[in-house]
């Protein structure tokens, strides 16, 4: 299999992963599309350097999240602010308005986290272990545990304040 075919297969197999990253880090559909394209481009640029020491999806998470953070930092410098809008929750089939409101509030609180913490909670919600999160984010496993505890406490506090 040629390198190009291998790359196309990697992107095809991980489209959902890339889409999730764009949804967490980009505010509107056009920006999500731009970020998706930038992640694919950056993945292609670094594909030749992928040593296959980790799983392809782990490597792609790292490239995608780093690209998203860089993309947001560039936009922040241009705008000085980054307003957050609601994530399109099309994947929810449940029509319970109270449940949808709670989920939306959780996403609103996640968007208020700094970029690294947002990435860590995203990976946690994706079911990644602390070891995988550490590998993807480039921080130690103990730091992941510490950050996760703080993130959970902060989210719990914010959610509790809303329900009070």
What does this structure look like?
The structure is a single chain. The chain has helices at residues 3-13, 15-25, 29-47, 56-79, 97-111, 115-125, 130-137, 141-163. It is mainly alpha-helical. It has two domains: 1-83, RNA polymerase sigma factor, region 2, helix turn helix motif (Rna Polymerase Sigma Factor, Chain: A); 89-164, Winged helix-like DNA-binding domain superfamily/Winged helix DNA-binding domain (Arc Repressor Mutant, subunit A, Orthogonal Bundle), CATH 1.10.10.10. Helix 2 crosses helix 3 (29-47) and helix 4 crosses helix 7 (130-137). It is globular, with a radius of gyration of 17 Å.
The main pleated sheet reads as: none
- Give the uncertain stretches in residue-range form: 79-92
Termini distance? 58 Å
What is the number of strand segments?
A: 0
Write the SSE topology.
Elements: H1 3-13, H2 15-25, H3 29-47, H4 56-79, H5 97-111, H6 115-125, H7 130-137, H8 141-163
Helix pairs in contact: 2-3, 2-4, 3-4, 4-7, 6-8, 7-8
Summary of the model, kept short:
The chain is mostly helical and 164 residues long.
Provide key terms for this protein.
Arc Repressor Mutant, subunit A; 164 residues; 74% helix; 2 domains; mainly alpha
